[in-house]
Amino acid sequence: MSVRVLSIDPGFTRLGWANLILEKGELSLGLTGIIGHPRTDESFNEYLDDGIAEIAEEFPVILSITTPELIFFENVPPGKLGSRSELNIAASTACKVLAFQWGIPWIGIGANTVKKELTGDGTATKAVVRNTVMELFPVLNQQHKEVKLEQKKAKEKATGIPQDLFDAVAIGVVGLKLHGQAGDEMQDESR
After folding, report:
1. Domain region containing 177
2. Which of 37, 63, 67, 125 could form a disulfide with 51 if both were Cys (CB 3.0 to 4.6 A apart)?
3. What is the DSSP letter of 123?
């Protein structure tokens, strides 16, 4: 049995996404990426609208390329991020509406659940999550190093791959761990 999923880490400055495939008990990483929220000097509401417009343009392309059977995303309760909550909720809602239009089931997972199931510690730091994901997928470790080198050469802060991408991979890994084996039954229940 094969399951293709898309996992999403909705952020207020960028949205990380990852395509994972579980086939015959083997987990592999497909395409990954970031959708950036445009930064402008406009008011908050116009900035929010620009971010939603960016997602509305890019997310259907990602869906068509990755052809997921399920989408996992990080649940962030409204208000938890303070003034940034609106951007985060808007990003996940825009993706959710598009997923519903495409008929793709959508399953939310809490951040602490992702940390606990991935690392064994529900309070794990972002660095621990990142390092655990790089252990699972060494190709990301290599890409992270390459991006840091490019950033250093460009005299930028060498931060490497954005954390949102590692978080998206973690969400997908945990989603498949918790729900991936359910296959067709889960799809029927979530519609």
Report:
1. 2-190
2. 37
3. T
